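We examine the record.

___
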Amino acid sequence: MKEISLGLLIPFLGTTLGAMTVYLMKSKINVKTEKLLLGFASGVMIAASIWSLLIPALDMAEEQGKTSWIPATIGFLLGIIFLLVLDSLIPHLHLKSDKPEGIKSKLKKTTMMVLAVTLHNIPEGMAVGVTFAGAIIGNTGITMAGAFALAIGIAIQNFPEGAIISMPLKSEGMSKTKAFLCGTLSGIVEPIGAIITILLTNAVVPILPYLLSFAAGAMIYVVVEELIPESQAGDHSNIGTIGIAIGFVIMMILDVALG
């Protein structure tokens, strides 16, 4: 139980450490560094979606005697739709954008910036929770080492996300401490979502392939809708591309080596 608790907290720790960089940097985050970090986060999430979620979903469905691609397809598309709905409803503001998305609200700009990051932390928490649930159940093809590999990979990409949210908040006039707390709290949905999934472990056994691919779809939505466009906007887009390659390879190695 202790190792599971640790595994669920690892991604949140990554966000916290990233948010702490607000105490180390004196001004705005360098544009090239920001693009590299955004690209890196994208690469990690793409690789995690494939090796940690979709491939296990396909294998598991086949072992259950189902046509392997059907649960993966349904789950993946539902994950896309789920994030599309949240994106349309929750008021939020992306980096370097003055046009809020979601329903109209009178929320502060800084609050909507935090909500933007919180929004795409939801599928990451679900992904970690589902993989640990699979490892707990056993006979699913998901090992505890594989679940930890995903948690570590998500933590690695959460580090730049924590930095990317806390630094702009500071630039908007927040104190360093408040910017750090907001950056940290943006990741709190991850362990909460993971814990809820773990508590429902016995109920999710028959639909685990759907849930794994659902998390994959939700993560890919975030990558395509937000991270990659932000990493490719303006100058130095090649740096974002390099970041994607590095993040993808690191997550792939983590999953294959530990999974």
Residues 31-63 form the longest helix (33 residues). The chain has one domain: 32-258.
